[in-house]
Specification:
596 residues, alpha+beta, Penicillin-binding protein 2a (Domain 2), Beta-lactamase, 2 domains, five-stranded antiparallel beta sheet
Length: 596
Amino acid sequence: MKTKRFVISSIFITTAIIFIVKLFYIQVIDDKYKLSAENNTLRHITVYPSRGFVFDRKGKIIVANRVNYDLKVVPRSIETFDTAAFCKLTGIEPDDLKKKFEKNKYSYKPVLLKKQIDEEEYARIAEELYRYPGFFVEKRSLRTYPYAAAANVLGYLGEVDAEDLKNDDYYQMGDYIGKSGIEKTYEKELRGKKGTKIYMVDVLGRIQSSYKNGKYDLPAEAGKNITSSLDIDLQKFGETLMQNKIGSIVAIEPSSGELLALVTSPAYDPNLFVGKKLARNYGKIESADNNPLFNRALRSMYPPGSTFKTVNALIALQKGLITDKTVFTVNGYNAGTYIMKDHVSGAVSFKKSIQLSSNAYYCHVFKRIISDRRFDNYADAYNDWVSYVKSFGLGTKLGTDLGTERRGIIYPASYFDKYYGKGHWNYNTVISLAIGQGELGFTPLQTANLAAIIANRGYYITPHIVKNIENEKIDKRYLEKHYTKVESKYFEPVADAMESVVTEGTAVSAYVPGLSICGKTGTAQNPHGKDHSIFIAFAPKENPEIAVAVYVENAGYGSAWAAPIASLIIEKYLTDSVSRPWLVKRIEEANLINEK
């Protein structure tokens, strides 16, 4: 019995000792519990971090910050003050101030009165703010765009909405978040980490001193700087060339997949979406003719036109259905129900078929692909052809870090089975696919990537806009090579033929001495008006440094506008100059928006 009492007593004594030690630790040693208990006499002020800068590939700052301020008040801490003088000082309407106080009159928490006060206005207000206890300012920052270019690439900031708050508890009402472009994709890297300053306040909520001399303050951590792959001078040059035109320019460094320029036209100045200007200008730009907010480089889909002949040539070479010595004698192509016209006739060689862009030649090539006897039927041969096309990144999302791209259009055989009936269609039914028309639709990004694939002789790296993140590695998927289903050796004759397109073919308008530009013209049929002008190219032929796709809507043949624009972009990038100022002037002054 004594043993039992001893055990029970020991348990109680031990428990009491544990509680006493713990209580001593909480009250004397560990301040954090005291901090928690004193929260009703403390004020936590958020310290907002500086957002990371964005640089171009040459180190030029293309997105920076400028300081602004938010004016706040703790309603329970204010004393009687001259509201008329205060409203005159701050520019706040008396009725608005009254409503704020009536709604929050019992609050000990800061209430926002006026946001995005610039430095000049802040200096004026700060001189007099000591007269108004309870009022204070918080330092914030807004974006600024020194080059006023690349708006659809860089994106913009806006206030968080309910969905943002739900998805990430980092944010509070009134915070800013990237809404598009680099600002959105790399939001977590750019935003940094908020800090906190803790102050002692009196019973009226007035700040008395820093709590514990700042022992528990948390410094803000600035956002990480990002080096983009853009060449901002090339981007601005491209936007200038595309002014008063609808379309896009996409330029890629083939060896890395880095986007050198991504122009969408019409464009707009990104500074129009900074701070208070966003609310004033967003609706105007969104409703403007031809919607400048629409990123045509990533979201427009066009038939590739004759640029697609390069793909059919490569697939047929890989399958052994033609060689680079194959000749077809042509005079148009009889598709059964109609004759496909051609501006080339007679004996056409492989090189000449690309150089002069023969329609009939590629109708014969496509016929061989779809009627390949290694397959049981046309549908199986067609689906195999689709798999080859998709291996070029066509008709599929490439996975760019800009995040708004469209998939494109290329249908499986089941689409035609449903439309025409299973077994009731053949190569002639879909012969327009031979020349990049019909049931095809690719984005300019995908088409530029095609040019990069040919430049690389068979592979691509996913096009991306960020080259480097401060103290971080970029996503490894932007380093991986994606190989097509066509072997490298079959790309050489295509590259040779594309060089002849520029030297003596359909795109002599793109010729620049010494640059060995390889290109292919295209004209995309447009049921709503004049055809679209298309050109893809890369240069130099050996060890290419740039691949380009240019689309100019309602501008006719690819040789008319897209080819010379592409050649200027290539020359500007490779030589940092242009040798044909007269051509620059002609293109800059041309207004093709109303060409229908």
